[in-house]
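User: My advisor, Dr. K., asked me to get a structural model of this assembly before our group meeting. I'm new to this, so sorry if the format is off. These are the inputs:
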Amino acid sequence: MQNTYLSTWQFSCMLFLTLLGNAISLAPAGGAGRDAWIAHLLGSLVGLFLIYAMLRIQKAFPGESIVKISEICLGKWVGKIFSLMFILLLFYAVALYLFDLCILLRTIFPFLTDFVLRPLLILTAAYGIYKGTTVVGRLSELAVPVILLFIFASFAIISSAANLNFLQPVLSDWRKLAGGAINAAGWPYARIAVMVFFLPFVTDLKEKSHLIYIWYYIGVIIFLTRAILILAVIGPEYVLLARFPLYAAIRSVALADFQRVELFFTLLWLVSGFIIVLVNYFAIILALKDSLNLPRIRPIILPVGLFLVVISLFMYTSDIEYFPIQSRIASYLYLLGNLFYLTIILAALKLGRQTQHKTGDVSPFYHK
Amino acid sequence: MLSLMIIFILLFSIIEGPGLVKRKEEKEIAVVAFLFLVSLTYGMDFVLQLHLMPNPKSLIYNLLPVAEQISAFFNLMQ
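Assistant: The format is fine. Below is the predicted structure of the whole assembly, which you can bring to the meeting.
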């Protein structure tokens, strides 16, 4: 496949959009009530650790995929089993992202059916994957200014209706805060672990890795501001009741004689929701290629796409069934799966280094 | 559902089919055939409402009691 390189800048843009993804329209850590914004701050530490782990692992094995690295560090079969679990989590994530995005799009365009929307989204993503990593990186680079513009515009609009009394009292229940922080850590922050599949394509990682941390914290600040503003506009109870709180907050604002202001923001939901589907779908393709030792990714793009469409339609047929259950389970699954996979590889890498240091064995894989 | 499965298979046959047959990569062909077979089986199960295939969500639902206990311990609003 051609176009298989990324700059750190493009990678950071992809990470930023993956972080925002569907979480910008939903309510991560909403269960923490008035302290949701503090829960975001605490939960973001997990994402920080995951970025550190991804970079450490990649610097030890430049250009190697995480599937191969896990086989080197953990042994062939154990590595394969852990990678398989991680791939299954990716399939689950894409099914959920597709469902969420389609529900949101159908809220705005009620006459479009899932049988049209899901294949359309997956076929568009498949086209991006056919074009290669560089094109996906450029797409993210182009999407970031648009996304930022719409996010700031939405914040400016809803801030006019903000009532900061909704945020009082602060830190009234530490348990709720801790639970909210765990939820936020799992989703959206632990979901950035998917970016580990794109690190081998980054050419200037050594010199510019700080950009990744900067863009990650820009994302965290956006979530923090969003959590404060939404709480201040619609209150902690309605945050939990609303299916898409930011959408609900924008809808509640009257702007002179304009009606349906929220429709301006369709592009924001569509682009951020689409990029996260694209990134996760691409990661599945890369992971399958490496774990099955396939010479090319092209032949599996469409079969995996069809499987994703069918399985997402098969798993959930109604939002009434999906929303109350998934919002409770998904973040714990994401947290456990992503944290466990990268932490165990990092631990194996460090233990391997210590053993190597003691025995004096010089493995060709441990570069640094 | 049927038409979307046909569209995907047709697209695949046009874009990748000739190259795949020409290269005779057995592993690639096996993986592609397996993925299509699983998708078609799930698709037909969905269309005909047979409910024969296991639903992956039932695996995830097994975790619901644990998730609810964690939420209850942390007093999370639901």
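One thing worth pointing out at the meeting: The helical segments of chain B are 2-15, 17-23, 26-48, 56-61, 64-73.

User: Perfect, thanks a lot.
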